[in-house]
Structures are given as structure tokens and as C-alpha cells.
Amino acid sequence: MQRSLNLKINMSNSIRIQKAISQSQIASRRATEKMIKNQQIRVNGNVAKLGDKVIKDDKINIDNNSYVCIEKKIDTKILIYHKPIGVICTKSDPERRETVFDQIPQAKANWLNIGRLDINSSGLLLFTNNGELCYRLTHPSYEITRKYIVRILGELDKEQIKKCKDGILYQREVLKLSSIKLIAGEGINKTYAISLKEGKNHEIRNIFESFGFQVNKLLRVEFANIALPRELKPGKSFLINNYDTTQILNQVNLPLQSTTLQLKFTKKTKRKMRL
Fold it and tell me: How far apart are CA 85 and CA 263, in angstroms?
């Protein structure tokens, strides 16, 4: 990536292009990497490469949409929400099903959901306006603990419980729980309290189903040391205070207030006609 020679440019104020795009809520980091590989992104007129960084005033073109890189101050906010069953974790749905963003009071553009719960799961879901916080809380390297209550049809034996904690190979991925404890159960249904430090897609359901057990209830009760309040009804949410917000930020080494780089839309570029 080429820039005009300017010895005063401070590259310490630069960030990777994937990060700038994701925290601007244009595309996820994974989707951005795919677009870079497909040469759909240009920075200052040059085709972007993986690892490229951007600075303030850089001009970025993403699939014929033009943006400029600006500095933005972030006063981190975190919203705690009780997700009900039947609601999906996306901003829009082609099938017009109800989404979590339909239920939170603030504008969609202001919030990022920290992780996901599938349509048949319920419980604690956090939202934030800080893209870097969202990334760090969901990245496996930070080992953020998630706790769940799981009810299954049947009961695990001692060997199966050991395998849950040691790890099982499922579709070429190793899935494991940090802890598991039987807490209730009468008849054929048993309820377990579990925890894990990685949120792979359908990980909990896949672990139990690998042993032949069907999960008929999955409730997240804690994330990043924030517990689901008993008084918070499904579909409801509220902003947590600065003290609790700071406690979460401290887990991933981020300040309450910060300045970052984001992309501001400027115009849509017309496609050149091919003769």
C-alpha cells in the first residue's frame, strides 16, 4: 500500500484495515479478510492486502462504496439483555423473524452484540458500542468464561462427564467444557450447570448430541463475570453502570474512554462499464 512521502505520519496511530472496518460495523473481520482476498477493497487507490494498516484521512473503497478514515472518541457503554427463545441474533432477517435488535430500545447502528445465542437458546446477551471490546470478549485467547444451565433428555455417565472436560473431537474440531455439574433432575430429564471459555457455534448442543443426548433447554446465566439478573424479564434490557463496565473492560485490558479509527461513508462509486 503506497502513500505520498510524509515523514510526519505517525503509524502508531494506525490500525489494521480489518479492525477499522469491523468496528465501523460495515463487515466482520472474517468477512473483511475474504473481501481483501477477492480484491474488493482499495486504500488510497491501491488494492488492499492482508496486514495493511490505515491511518486518519485514508480513503477506503469497499465494493464501490467510498469511505474516509476518521478519529472517533468512544465512551464505552454495555447493555445487558435477556434473550427469549424464538428471537434471532442478527440485525436483519430475510424471513422477517423478530431479532434481538427489535427488542432493545436504542438505535440498531449504535450496538454490537457480544457473541450469539441460537434461536432455541435464551438468557444473558451483552451489547456494546465498542467494537474492540466486542472482538476481545469473543476471541478465544482472552478465555472469557460463559456459564449455562442445560437440561437434557437422559443422564451422562462418569466417563462421558470426563470426556466433556477433556475434550471431544466433533467434525474436526475439539470441543470441551471447563466444568460440568449435575444440579437437578427427576425422571428422564437432567439439568447441568456448565461453563466454558470459548463460544464455538452450537458447541454445547454438539457436545451433548455427540453422546446421543438431546438438549431441550439452554440458558446462559453468566458472561464475563456478569450474571443474568433474576428480575430481568425475557425481552428486556438495561445499561449497566460505569463500575461494572470498567470491570468488564479490565478483563481485556481496555479503558473506559478511548479514541479509535472508524470509517465514515462519503459516496457510492459508479461502476465502470466494460466495453
Answer: 35
